[in-house]
Automatic annotation (TrEMBL):
Source organism, top-level taxon: Eukaryota
Organismal lineage: Eukaryota, Metazoa, Spiralia, Lophotrochozoa, Mollusca
One Gene Ontology term of the molecular function aspect: DNA binding
Entry protein name: HTH psq-type domain-containing protein
Domain HTH psq-type residue range list: 16-51
InterPro entries xrefs: Homeodomain-like_sf, HTH_Psq
SUPFAM superfamilies noted in UniProt: Homeodomain-like (SSF46689)
Gene3D superfamilies named in the record: Homeodomain-like
Organism for this UniProt entry: Dreissena polymorpha
Pfam families: HTH_psq
Length: 103
């Protein structure tokens, strides 16, 4: 069974994200810039702390969708993966695609 999240992602404009980022470079706080430019604070804070690249796209990429579909398929036929298995599988898959993976 797949759990559906009740959390809705707040859409934001990429241009506003860039403007908010520029405003923080000028001295504005992350909280104030996120409110002023209508960007989710947690998303913006991740970008300013350099946890996520400022140009990163939001939403599932094709590769993520392919992995998720595989996990769902395996669960439907009775072979569910543990959280640890999924994390290892995702890291291995990302490395095979040449993506940078944190330890």
């Amino acid at each position: 069974m797949i759990r559906e999240s009740n959390h809705k992602k707040k859409p934001y404009n990429k241009n506003n994200l860039k403007r908010a980022f520029d405003a923080t470079l000028g001295g504005m706080s992350v909280y104030r810039a996120s409110r002023a430019y209508n960007v989710p604070e947690s998303t913006f804070r991740d970008r300013t702390r350099q946890n996520v690249d400022i140009t990163c796209k939001h939403g599932a990429e094709k590769e993520e969708r392919k992995l998720a579909d595989h996990i769902v398929f395996m669960a439907n036929i009775g072979y569910g993966y543990s959280v640890t298995d999924v994390r290892c599988m995702a890291a291995d898959y990302a490395r095979s695609l040449g993506k940078n993976v944190r330890a």
